[in-house]
Design a protein that fits this description.
9-stranded mixed β-sheet; 225 residues; TIM Barrel; alpha/beta; 9 strands
Length: 225
C-alpha cells in the first residue's frame, strides 16, 4: 500500500469474526519454509503505514471462525482429497492487530502448523505451538518498538534492505543479538530492475560481513500470488 493505507486500531474483543483480505493456497516463497506448500490467511488492516509495503490489505471482508477453518481445510486438499498443505501462514496487514489467539488454537487443533508473520508491535497470548516471525517496520522516523515478549518467542527476524534508501541501508540490533535469533535480509522491491539487482548484491555483502541469511521472495520470480 506504500504507506497510503488507513492506520487501523488494535481490536481487543474476540467476537469470533475477523477482517480477512483473502485466504489462498500457494507456496511459501521466502524463508523460513521456502518452497513449502502453504495456506495463507491474509488479515485485513494494519496498525502501521510503511512507505515500502507493496501488499494490499484493505477492502477486506468479515469472516467467522468456522468459515475460516472450513476454507483452510478445503484448500489443504489435493484433487484426490488428500491433505497436501500442512502449513498455515497468518499474515497481513498485521494479524496480531486482531484477537487471533483462539483462532490459532482452532487451526492447530485441525493438525496444521501455524506461522504468524508480524511487525512485532502487538502482543497476544498465542499458543507455544505456533511460530512467530518478526518483520520490523521503519515508518520514516525509525523502526517501531519491538516487544520483548515477542522477541523471546520469534524463530526469526526479517529485515527489508535497500541500498539507495538511508532508512533501510543498515540492520539495527532490535534484540536479535540478545536472543541469538536468526536474521534474514530481504532486498526491497523498488519496482525497478536495476535498483532491485543493486539491493540483492547489497544484502549479499551485508550477509557476508554479519553472518545473516539472505532472503529472496521467490514467489515474485515465478509469478505466484
Amino acid at each position: 500500500m506504500l504507506g497510503r493505507n488507513q492506520i487501523r486500531e488494535v481490536i481487543q474483543e474476540d467476537t469470533g469474526v475477523f477482517q480477512i483480505k483473502s485466504i489462498v493456497a500457494s507456496f511459501k516463497g521466502d524463508e523460513p519454509y521456502c518452497g513449502a506448500p502453504a495456506i495463507f490467511v491474509n488479515f485485513g488492516g494494519c496498525n502501521l503505514a510503511c512507505n515500502f509495503c507493496d501488499t494490499d490489505f484493505e477492502d477486506f471482508i468479515d469472516m467467522k471462525n468456522d468459515e475460516i477453518i472450513q476454507k483452510i481445510n478445503g484448500l489443504s486438499l489435493n484433487n484426490q482429497g488428500k491433505r497436501v498443505r500442512n502449513l498455515v501462514v497468518l499474515t497481513g496487514g498485521e494479524p496480531l492487530r486482531q484477537p487471533i489467539s483462539h483462532l490459532c488454537n482452532l487451526i492447530v487443533d485441525q493438525g496444521f502448523a501455524v506461522l504468524i508473520e508480524t511487525n512485532g508491535t502487538i502482543f497476544r497470548n498465542i499458543s507455544p505451538k505456533c511460530e512467530i516471525l518478526i518483520s520490523p517496520k521503519n515508518t520514516g522516523s525509525g523502526y517501531s518498538f519491538i516487544r520483548d515478549d515477542l522477541l523471546r518467542r520469534a524463530i526469526a527476524i526479517k529485515f527489508v534492505i535497500s541500498k539507495s534508501h538511508p532508512l533501510y541501508q543498515k540492520v539495527p540490533d532490535i534484540g536479535q543479538s540478545r536472543y541469538n535469533t536468526k536474521v534474514y535480509l530481504q532486498p526491497m522491491d523498488e519496482f525497478d530492475i536495476i535498483k532491485n539487482l543493486n539491493n540483492l548484491q547489497y544484502i549479499l555483502e551485508i550477509a557476508e560481513e554479519t553472518g545473516y541469511y539472505y532472503n529472496i521472495q521467490t514467489q515474485k520470480i515465478i509469478g505466484l500470488s
